[in-house]
Amino acid sequence: MIFQRPIPFPGTVRSNLAVADASAPDSTFFDVLCRVGLDPSMLERVADDLSGGEAQRMCIARTLLTEPEVILMDEPTSSLDPENRIGIEDLARDLAQEGIGVVWVSHDLSQVQRIADRIEVLVEGRNATPTESLTYLEQRTEGDR
Q1: What was the pLDDT predicted at 75?
Q2: Residues 22 and 83 in one domain
Q3: 97 and 114, same structural domain?
Q4: Domain match, 63 and 112 both
Q5: What pLDDT shows up at residue 107?
Q6: What confidence tens digit (pLDDT) does each residue in 23-77 have?
Q7: Residues 130 and 95 both lie in one domain
Q8: What is the spatial distance between Cα 38 and Cα 142, in angstroms, rounded to a whole number?
Q9: What is the pLDDT of residue 11?
Q10: How far, in Å, CA of 44 to CA of 46, rounded?
Q11: 129 lies in which domain range?
Q12: What confidence tier does 141 reach under pLDDT thresholds 50, 70, 90?
């Protein structure tokens, strides 16, 4: 799971990644850091010193090391700058194309429409009917104009 705000563990980037796979060689850590758009030279950096975008990407890398079939992303870009937001969106699309399920929770309708293959709308805590979903999406889209 990827949370709204990244949650780095105390220590270095390496120690954060090792939480997911302690036996992984450095080459595996290098590969997963590159996959999420981080420089492998960051392995010895203190995780708490990373920027918000770097920390979020590191947390995604840590999650990927567990080889998940599905990743739940709860507002993963809400506290990020536009450049990092786009990078995380691109990564989510790439993961989905590679067969890793991505469930993206968001209140940002324009973002959801950019990245989603399927949208599920909740109304008062329940799944909306197709008609309710369409009405909601149309109203929200008109409000964004």
Answers
A1: 93
A2: yes
A3: no
A4: no
A5: 85
A6: 999 999 999 999 998 999 999 999 999 998 899 999 999 999 999 999 999 999 9
A7: no
A8: 37
A9: 98
A10: 6
A11: 108-145
A12: low
Same domain, 98 and 68: yes
Give first-to-last CA distance, the chain, whole Å. 33
- What type of residue is 29? F
Confidence of residue 118 (pLDDT cuts 50, 70, 90): confident
Q: CATH number, domain at 44?
A: 3.40.50.300
Instruction: Tell me how many domains the chain contains.
Output: 2
CB 34 within 8 A of CB 62: no
33 in Cβ contact with 47 (< 8 Å): no
Contact between 106 and 112 under an 8 Å Cβ cutoff? The reply is yes
- Classify residue 87 as left (phi > 0), alpha (psi -120 to 50) or beta: alpha
The string of pLDDT tens digits covering residues 4-29 is: 999 999 999 999 999 999 999 999 99
* 51 CB-near residues (< 8 Å, 6+ apart): 84
Residue with tokens 């700058």: 81
32 shares its domain with 99: yes
141 shares its domain with 88: no
